[in-house]
Amino acid sequence: MGLQEAMNTRIGGWSLKGLSGGQKRRVSICIEILTRPKLLFLDEPTSGLDSAASYHVMNRIIKIAQEDMRTIVASIHQPSSEVFELFDNLCLLSYGKTIYFGSSSKANEFFAANGFPCPYMRNPSDHYLRTINKDFDDIEEGFGKNIISSGKAIDTLVKSYESSEACLNVRQRVLTICQKNGRLLENKGSQAGFITQCKVLTQRSFLNMYRDLGYYWLRFLIYLALCLCIGTVFHEIGSDYGSIQARSSMLVFVVGFLTFMAIGGFPSFVEEMKLFTRERLNGHYGVGAFVIGNTLSSTPFLLLISLVPGAVAYYLADVQKGIDHFAYFFLMLFACMMLVESLMMIVASIVPDFLMGIITGAGIQGIMMLNGGFFRLPKDLPMPIWKYPVYYLAFHKYAIQGFYKNEYETFTYFTDGGLAIIVTRDEILRDIFQVELNYSKWGDIAIVFGMADFLFLVGW
């Protein structure tokens, strides 16, 4: 395909120019012919190519078809005369009507017999398209320089074809093929095993995420800046009774808004879904391999985003110190990140539109955040919808309760007006925040991981 000099060049994207449009088109053709299908459909394979490149590309494709006895059906955008001569058969359509279907070499004879011969030194394909195109209501010249409208020319050609020998031969050929008891071609799918598919897809997805600055790196910098703001805002909040509200606000902000910003990866999800849809239809791999590969490749980036910005926010803010408390904080934040990534993957598969997908994902998270038990205490939530089932389906509920239990796990000493007051863990959790105490904080994190796994299986 003439891509030897571009073999070490990246495909490119919004942050990198990469290959030209014509080179990308040739790469896509190469991907399609790698598996050597029995029947290959090409939609305008020469679009974006100059006349020389178009000829060489189509010439190589036809050689492959002849060597391997393949059938290739292609729609062609403005072919040159050299490219047009490479085709064995030609099908001309106009507004759903068949104008001609037969040998390419006999098309000019058909048009000439009906009063529309191809002028000397004119590209036959240009002449045919001009004759059967009535978008601009062009006029055509027939024998004797008669002027007629394009609509009348099309009607004349359609009627002539329906009564022609070429149309009769096509119908007989179709009837003969339908009467044959040929065996069905086996759809063997990908020649690679499931493990190989997962491995290759993981490597490709990881490389794509690593190279794309907007995929996770920009999000990492924004998270880092935001966590720096969180740490400085909630720095030295003290240990008086009023600090309970400040601590809870900091934890809820982390659960709500840091996970909410995961919708920033939705545009990349949409692009991956487009690629996945095309490659899956071509039988390269299945849904399971794609989901596993995408999840494994994103896990290191989510770990990094959860660890570094999370550590900045946690150790700058005046909250419970200790490696065990931070480890729980980090794991819960990572679980929420994984859950939202799986949720946005599902949204991308259902709502592929960029704007509508972001609105849908933001709306789902907004509803769960509103009913997570902070903005309105659990006992005050209206029933039956908001308390049952939304409150129990929202992952914010379990993340917030887990953070509360982790923060107020031991006796906490507060001072109120110079008077020392001992407030127990149960008093804070049960009386102030109405947290469920019938299971530990590890039960909350297990539930969040379980919800993430469930969404992962739904995406599968």
From TrEMBL:
* Alphabetical keyword list: Membrane, Transmembrane, Transmembrane helix, Transport
Q: Where are the transmembrane segments?
A: 216-238, 250-270, 290-316, 328-348, 354-377
* A Pfam family assignment: ABC2_membrane
Q: How does it sit in the membrane?
A: Multi-pass membrane protein
Against InterPro entries, the record matches this protein to:
ABC2_TM, ABC_transporter-like_ATP-bd, ABCG_dom, P-loop_NTPase, Plant_ABCG
Q: Does the keyword Transmembrane apply?
A: yes
ABC transporter family G domain sequence ranges: 77-130
Residues annotated as domain ABC transporter: 4-47
Q: Does the keyword Ubl conjugation apply?
A: no
Start and end of every ABC-2 type transporter transmembrane domain? 196-408
- What top-level branch of life does the organism fall under? Eukaryota
Task: State where the protein is found.
Answer: Membrane
PANTHER family recorded: ABC TRANSPORTER G FAMILY MEMBER 11, ABC TRANSPORTER G FAMILY MEMBER 11-LIKE
What does the similarity note say? Answer: Belongs to the ABC transporter superfamily. ABCG family. Eye pigment precursor importer (TC 3.A.1.204) subfamily.
Protein name as it appears in the record: ABC transporter G family member 11
Source species of the chain:
Datura stramonium
